[in-house]
Amino acid sequence: MARDRELAAFHSLTLGFQASYSFSIPRLTWIPKSSGTVAYDRMMINYLDYRNALYSKLDPGVIKAGAEPLYALDASIYQLYFSLWF
Question: Does pTM surpass 0.90?
Answer without folding.
Answer: no
